[in-house]
Amino acid sequence: MKPVLVLLVSTAWTFTGAQYYYQGLMDYLENRLLAIEDRMQFWHEQSHRYHTELQDIKKLTAETIDGLRNEHSTLFKDLEGASVRVDRVEREMDYVETRTSPRACANKADKVVEQGAWGLEESRGEEEEEEDWEELYSRVSDCVEIVSSIRSVKILKRVGSPKGMWTRDPRSSKVYIFNGTSGNSIYQFSSVRDFSRSPGVTGSRQIRLPSEFTGAGSAVYNGYLYYIQREADMDVQVVKYDLLSGSVTDIAMFPVESHASVYSLNPETVADLAADDEGLWLLYATSDSEPNINLAKMDPATLDIEQIWDTRCPRENAEAAFVICGTVYVVYNTRLASRSRVQCVFDVNDMVISEEAPLIYFPRRYGSHASLKYNPEEKQLYGWDDGYQIIYRLTMKRKLLV
User: Fold this and answer.
1) 241 burial class (0-12, 13-18, 19+ CB within 10 angstroms)?
2) 372 strand-pairing partners
């Protein structure tokens, strides 16, 4: 009887202990679940807050974008208006420049010639006046004109590469097209009118040269083509080519580095040939370290150098040049093409003084000049601008007032 009682007491004790254990476990699990629910509630509240903030940011961003679009539209309209006003101002400037040209500083040869030195004293007699003038006039050529302004501009057409050259023989009506800055083929048209009416270079006579020309510095003068030939590790050569017979009549070599360009904005042009009333000229730089443009007077028959000058016109930012009556006009621009302008003038006869040299601005165009060639018979410039062929008609005045 006693063992049975002990067993019952022991079983009751064990059952009571297990009941307490499971109760504690349930309490623990219940507390953990409550904690998880609290954390989930916190996460839900945080997520809702982040969502609300994100919606606010999205709304603010959309409002800012709309505002920027409106400001962009307003700014674009303002820029369009400014562009129209700038174009109007430039047209007015072009008009004013055709009426009155501002003055520029002109570089002269080694000895500065004062304006008074050219005048004749009033106290001299008429016979002495004539003798002094004859002595003065014998020092210079018959050509005594200087550019006063650009009278008109004619954009003829657009043919070929952004860089090239075109010109007209002063002694004939034939026009010659040099497409690009190198090659051995040029195109000949009977006249400017034929060139303007033809589609591209169709209808032209193609001339194949015996060697490649380099740069945009060729010249046509009295039925002959003068062009620059450059070979590796050799000096620059000037080739004289008879356009009628189709043969080379002479070649002259000049001590010019083959990689030195005469104009910094057109590095392909290592030398530039120019023709005017006084003959044939060569613009060049002896080396890449030479800061200024040099000028040489050439004999068109033999290609001999007659005289050399340092124009003191800088090569930096120069894009082209032309020669009229022995006066060099160097045209300057900027790396980002702007309005070209004649900013340096040099006269080989010392007949141009500072007060007479106009600062000439070219009308706004498409890019920058690759070449400018003067025709003394027409008093016009033939320009190549970003593939466009342009004619500038010039107004001239006398260098000396007599």
Assistant:
1) buried
2) 383
Residue 363 has a CB neighbour count (10 Å cut-off) of 18
**What are the structure tokens assigned to 57, written together?**
């940011």
Residue 293 near residue 262, CB atoms below 8 Å: yes
pLDDT in tens, 36-56: 988 888 888 888 888 888 888
Residue 250 parent element (H or E): strand 247-254
Say if residues 236 and 270 touch (Cβ distance below 8 Å). Answer: yes
Per the rule left: phi > 0, alpha: psi between -120 and 50, beta: everything else, 229 is beta
Model pLDDT for residues 233-250, shown as the tens digit of each residue: 567 899 999 999 999 999
* Whole-model pTM over 0.70: no
- Tokens matching residue 398: 């006398």
